[in-house]
């Protein structure tokens, strides 16, 4: 079964990349930009066909892809070249890939939630006996947590995570009987309750029926939660809390998907868990690709905005070849990092 999960993981990862590149491709076509090649996969072509001005190809390594636009990485005299387009068109094309990844993540989450009958909600359903935090000027049954210390509560488990990350004094924003209630400097610490095997804050969450609007809300909230997890991971990476050894590339991601499926209790649970992970990776790709790093879409957007400002101030356009040099250098560094991570992932598998 492991081999099947590995193949499933490779397929999903390939789809995530293909969807990203298709976003660039579709936006380019809609904006009238000439696309020289649209490829799913990398390496040698196993199938290709010329349709009009565009070569469509399926390549042997299913861990990448690209949408090659005329003039994308250099100057071109073609009026339909990427660099000949208005700024808003170029921004639309550059952002379309990440938008597609984010949209795919949302669609996967919604698909997984279609069969849900109810969701646990960050709404207090009851209190444990002896809980000191219940009262007219404190927490009440029916209170829905919205924010804790300024951080949004997307899912019920965010409440415990955010409370445990605090120092015992919290600013709470709640919804009570349809109105917003704020509890400032509200003191709460976990304590031991009778019949419980660990320290708790003393309240239980309830369920809400999974109607269509509720499914949409939980889908959006899950995507937002995924996005926050990505930003937290980036912050930990910048702060040095995690290092290169904790990073994974395509090989590590596929191996993680296979491990996730293998650890599930049934095949259906394994497929569900892998798709849930795929949704997280889709949101992750959407955010990571928009970081202002050369060779990534976000780096291209950043340099496009910088060159636009320079042109507005000085009246002179930035030479496209300099931007090409920056992206080429960024690509070399990115490929080097990917190679290091790939060999690291392979080494972990053999270990």
Produce a short descriptive summary.
This protein has eight helices and eight strands; from the N terminus they run H-E-E-H-E-E-E-H-E-E-E-H-H-H-H-H. With 351 residues, it is of the alpha+beta class.
Can you describe what's shown?
It is a single chain. The chain has 351 residues and is α+β, with helices and mostly antiparallel strands. The chain has two domains: 2-113 and 276-350, no CATH class; 118-209, Pdz3 Domain (Roll), CATH 2.30.42.10. It contains eight helices and eight strands; from the N terminus they run αββαβββαβββααααα. It has helices at 2-30, 87-113, 156-165, 212-239, 250-262, 267-288, 297-314, 320-350; strands at 35-51, 54-69, 118-127, 144-148, 151-152, 169-176, 179-187, 203-209. The strands form three sheets. It has a four-stranded antiparallel β-sheet, with helices on one face. A two-stranded antiparallel sheet has the order 1-2. The longest helix is centred in the C-terminal third of the chain and has 31 residues, at 320-350. The relative contact order is 0.12.
Largest sheet: 4 strands, antiparallel
Give the strand order, joined by hyphens, for the main sheet. Answer: 5-4-6-7
General form: globular
Percentage of residues in strands:
15-25%
Count of structural domains: 2
Question: Tally of extended strands?
Answer: 8
Unreliable spans: none
Distance between the termini: 21 Å
SSE series? HEEHEEEHEEEHHHHH
Provide the structure class. alpha+beta
Summed up, the helix count is: 8
What is the residue-averaged pLDDT? 84
What kind of assembly state do the chains in view correspond to?
single chain
Our Rg estimate from Cα atoms comes to 24 Å
Percent of residues in helices: 40-55%
């Amino acid at each position: 079964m492991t081999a099947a999960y590995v193949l499933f993981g490779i397929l999903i990862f390939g789809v995530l990349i293909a969807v990203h590149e298709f976003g660039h491709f579709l936006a380019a076509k809609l904006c009238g930009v000439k696309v020289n090649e649209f490829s799913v996969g990398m390496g040698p072509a196993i199938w290709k066909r010329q349709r009009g001005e565009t070569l469509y190809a399926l390549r042997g390594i299913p861990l990448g892809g690209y949408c090659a636009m005329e003039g994308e990485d250099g100057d071109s005299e073609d009026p339909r070249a990427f660099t000949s387009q208005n700024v808003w068109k170029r921004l639309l094309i550059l952002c379309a890939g990440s938008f597609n990844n984010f949209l795919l993540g949302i669609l996967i989450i919604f698909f997984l939630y279609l069969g849900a009958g109810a969701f646990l909600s960050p709404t207090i359903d009851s209190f444990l006996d002896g809980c000191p935090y219940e009262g007219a000027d404190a927490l009440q049954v029916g209170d829905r947590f919205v924010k804790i210390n300024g951080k949004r509560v997307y899912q019920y488990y965010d409440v415990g995570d955010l409370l445990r990350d605090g120092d015992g004094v919290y600013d709470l924003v709640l919804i009570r009987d349809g109105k917003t209630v704020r509890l400032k400097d509200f003191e709460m610490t976990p304590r031991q309750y009778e019949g419980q095997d660990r320290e708790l804050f003393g309240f239980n969450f309830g369920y809400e029926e999974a109607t269509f609007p509720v499914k949409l809300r939980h889908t959006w909230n899950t995507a937002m939660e995924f996005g926050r997890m990505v930003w937290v991971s980036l912050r930990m990476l910048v702060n040095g809390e995690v290092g290169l050894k904790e990073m994974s590339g395509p090989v590590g991601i596929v191996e993680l998907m296979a491990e996730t499926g293998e650890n599930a209790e049934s095949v259906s649970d394994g497929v569900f868990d892998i798709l849930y992970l795929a949704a997280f990776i889709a949101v992750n790709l959407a955010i990571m690709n928009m970081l202002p790093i050369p060779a990534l879409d976000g780096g291209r957007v950043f340099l496009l905005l910088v060159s636009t400002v320079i042109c507005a101030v000085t009246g002179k356009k930035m030479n496209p070849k300099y931007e090409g040099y920056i992206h080429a250098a960024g690509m070399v560094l990115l490929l080097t990092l990917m190679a290091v991570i790939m060999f690291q992932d392979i080494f972990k598998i053999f270990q």
